[in-house]
Design goal:
Chains A, B: Its EC number is 3.7.1.3. The structure is a homodimer of 419-residue chains. With 419 residues, chain A is an alpha/beta fold. The first copy, chain A, has 12 helices and 15 strands.
Chain lengths: 419, 419
């Protein structure tokens, strides 16, 4: 077999791994375009067939024929809790402690405000400079409005976080898996370190929910938020989610106190009275069509064991890193993700000095990852629908783009609105 | 013709009015269930055929096949501004001064916070006790968070509002058309009265946009919000909207400062820098599927003149009131809406001591309005798809339910979650 190109040999190996993959049947639950290797499920998850059918039914039958009656008959009024319960099972939330609602940014504002109110007199909100920016922006906006001198304290290096947790810190707010590098924090250890100093934790699970095992209850997390449109495949701009530990239900209050968080929204009382539990963190009327898509998308997980998913995720990421190391050496790539699998989420990032143009050239050739400023090529691996052969093909296309310097073509230079 | 029942005569007259209605063709743009007289478009607008097709295309083609590339190629990133521009034309907003985003409650929080910051030292937020409750709840939540002693001052009678506008009032926050009674404020006059005392106005257009003529620019309104799922027919939980007068663009800041309101969201800067104009009032990732439904629903208005729509709205409401006066006298109904058309939106409400059960009995007979606690029967008239024959039929069914006391049946007594 020595005459075979390494390319073909590794592709055959990949096909063999796919044939032996216990999760291979899950790919059929998604609609994926032909000729595309989609490695951007960490930005927008692919379309589950069930979500497509459900949206059509929600629009035609529930809205079109059921009209206003569907708030009761189709259970629209319970969607935030029902969808929340499905997400809760994926991230180890206690029963009734998680709701689907609003956007991640809006939810972060709510839980941050609740957390700061539970830690009076403390001024610090510790996070990372490399956190997803909207998380930091929401702290800025909240601190300015609350006017109590809260300040964002940013670790430049994740290893410095623990040393920043002192008695003046109210909240430790971290994204569990870094959006750029895929680096994963030890949630249980950092939560413990924070709580030993009287600090509340707010975890952003945008790149964790549906990607890596998470156990909020076991980690004793205080608050969490996350995204519905990445690894949960809820569709573009899907409703986000929000978790509040049952320990805080009695005392936690949030400022976006809209009617869906009222104890009796349809009594139309003049004064606000918060609902019991996490429901008080709801605000306005839920986005029913988007919520229905997410609800159906979550059924994909019914028979998925998170441990099996994680095994495949690690195997896909390892195969990609090893493939790039073997085939793209000397072509200007530097691994930006941790090399050790246990410190990494379900993505792999490389830096390259022409990262933007390289990604455009890859996309033109059907390998879809994304670019993150200033110099990161980001590849997400969604074990539900990504195959080992996709990894093998992506490596070869990447090698080809780099070796041929195809990315230097002018058409790949101009930036677009979203990349 | 004297031997004809009044019922039949008025039904024939109604059919003749429908035949002469210059807007009658618009009904074909909606999918409406057979056998239902739908008078609840003020709670949830009916399904526009174009919205159904558009949602299917957004899901299958844009999400399913276009995947992440659709943020650019399908223009998802511009949806808040594009949909906002369509709504802006219906409510007289200046170019670029209105965006579609989030829920009405969340948007109210943003514009209220911006308005209060523009009126330092003033403590009052004047509104009405009969305003839609979530509007009042949002003021409560904001005032508690901001901690600057802001307080809600509620007029018990709309005629008292102007006298409450003194030098300690920061904001006058009103819903233009009352959700229960349909009573409509004089937006221009109240805005002028407020501004003469240095008070900023926040108008909630939930029951106005697409229902009555509104001219925000002409009225010199400062801020406004509104709902996408009532008279705009954007679907259950559709994105809401938000208006900021160009006079305030340079100085207005809002606390829900998420990445979509950043000057350069995809530069991923650590610090927040607000976008120009109203775009700084965006927060998280837009809800693309819901936004697409609303976008298509708004195309229904392309050739609709608001003056013609208002004429028909008034005629429908008048026909209903006259019909009830003629056919339901002595059956326990009292008009709760203003009798003069110019003081009324596009709905008619009656009180009845058994209002909840009466509405359930009406719904069972295919006449769908809604109940608002404690004793209001609410009927919305959407001129885009409501016919005069619907009005005539609704009057007769109402008479029948009341005269037969059918509403006393036990099955109509038990309250449901949403009514």
């Amino acid at each position: 077999m020595d005459h075979l190109e390494p390319r073909s040999r590794s592709r055959d190996e990949a096909l063999a791994r796919d044939a032996a993959d216990p999760l291979r049947h899950l790919r059929e639950r998604f609609e994926l375009p032909d000729g595309v290797v989609y490695l951007d499920g960490n930005s927008l998850g692919a379309l589950p067939r069930a979500a497509k059918d459900r949206v059509a039914a929600t629009v035609s039958r529930e809205w079109g024929r059921g009209l206003i009656g569907s708030w009761n008959e189709a259970g629209w009024v319970d969607l935030p809790a029902r969808v929340g319960a499905k997400i809760g099972r994926l991230v180890g939330a206690e029963d009734g402690s998680l709701v689907a609602t609003d956007s991640t940014s809006v939810n972060l504002f709510k839980v941050l405000a609740a957390a700061l109110a539970l830690a009076p007199g403390r001024r610090g909100v510790v996070s990372e400079a490399s956190n997803f920016p909207t998380d930091l922006y929401m702290v800025e906006g909240l601190a300015a409005l609350a006017g109590q001198g809260h300040e964002l304290r940013l670790a430049q290096d994740p290893e410095h976080i623990e040393a920043m947790l002192d008695g003046d810190v109210a909240v430790l707010m971290l994204t569990h898996v870094n959006y750029r590098t895929g680096r994963m924090h030890d949630m249980a250890a950092l939560t413990k370190a924070a709580q030993e100093r009287g600090i509340l934790t707010v975890w952003d699970l945008a790149h964790s929910a549906g990607a890596v095992p998470v156990d909020l209850a076991d980690a004793r997390a205080d608050f969490a938020v996350g995204c519905g449109y990445k690894y949960l495949n809820g569709g573009p701009g899907a409703p986000a989610f929000l978790y509040v530990s049952p320990r805080h239900w009695a005392r936690a209050a949030q400022p976006l106190s809209g009617w869906f968080g009222h104890a009796a929204p349809f009594r139309f009382d003049v004064g606000y009275a918060p609902a019991e539990g996490v429901r008080r963190f709801l605000t306005g009327t839920p986005s029913v069509i988007g919520m229905s898509a997410l609800d159906a998308a979550l059924d994909v997980w019914d028979d998925v064991e998170m441990a099996r998913l994680r095994e495949k995720s690690v195997a896909l990421c390892e195969a990609f890193i090893e493939g790039v190391e073997a085939r793209c050496a000397g072509l200007g790539l530097t691994l930006a993700s941790p090399r050790e699998a246990h410190r990494r989420g379900s993505q792999v990032s490389f830096t390259h000095e022409a990262a933007y143009a390289v990604m455009q050239a890859l996309i033109e050739r059907g390998v879809v990852g994304d670019f993150r400023a200033p110099d990161i090529l980001r590849f997400g691996f969604t074990p539900l629908y990504t195959r080992f052969v996709d990894v093998a093909d992506a490596v070869e296309v990447l090698r080809d783009v780099l070796e041929s310097r195809a990315y230097e073509a002018e058409r790949f230079q101009a930036r677009r609105a979203v990349t």
